[in-house]
Every structure is written in C-alpha cells, then in structure tokens.
UniProtKB/TrEMBL annotation:
Function: This is one of the proteins that bind and probably mediate the attachment of the 5S RNA into the large ribosomal subunit, where it forms part of the central protuberance.
UniProt keyword terms in alphabetical order: Ribonucleoprotein, Ribosomal protein, RNA-binding, rRNA-binding
One Pfam short name: Ribosomal_L18p
Lineage, uppermost ranks: Bacteria, Pseudomonadati, Pseudomonadota, Alphaproteobacteria, Hyphomicrobiales
Annotated source species: Shinella pollutisoli
Entry GO CC: ribosome
Protein name (Swiss-Prot/TrEMBL): Large ribosomal subunit protein uL18
Keyword presence, Zinc-finger: no
Amino acid sequence: MASKKEALARRANRVRRSLKAVANGRPRLSVHRSSKNIYVQVIDDVAGKTLAAASTLDADLRSSLKTGADTAAAAAVGKLIAERAVKAGVKEVVFDRGAFLYHGRVKALAEAAREGGLNF
C-alpha cells in the first residue's frame, strides 16, 4: 500500500505527463494548494524558467485578504497571476492542477485567471 504522499506524487506526475503531450511549447500554469495558502507559477518547461508567480503570501494581497485559504483568496491570486503573465508576454498556457481536483479553490483560481486574460 502506497503512502498518501506517494499517491499524490503519482497523480501529479500522471497529470503533468498528459499536459506535456498537449502543451506544444506553451508555458504551464502550475497550482499548489496548502491548508493555509495557494501558490501559482507560470513555468516555461523548455527553458526551465519561471516567468511569473503569485501567492496569497504576496505583500499587496496579504493585507487585503481575510485568509489565504478560501475561494476569494484564490480568485485574487488568479487575477494577479493573469496580470503578471500578460505583463511577461504570456497569453496562452496549459493549466497544471497537479494532484489537486479541479474544484473549490483550484477552480476559482482558474476562472479568475481566464477572466484576467489567460487562455487555457
């Protein structure tokens, strides 16, 4: 029986393997969700560089949020990453939810990033 950590890693690798097959050189919008915060990065896998990043720990967001662990915080991070990615010249991305289900905070972040101008 695999541990919970191994099962999460296996699920994340399965999602990333399928994403890389359809990416066609587009950067990856990678999401990580913890119990207290949410983090997102736009990653160029070809060059191995992070093009833009945002989280609920950013100083400008932290003061305006009640908590970093709700859908409102995730939506704020989604809008912020969309602004930063567009400023970096990225419009098209592939959404990498990792081992997390597309539900709740992850879904709120994705929808806010779409509204902010990212296409995926």
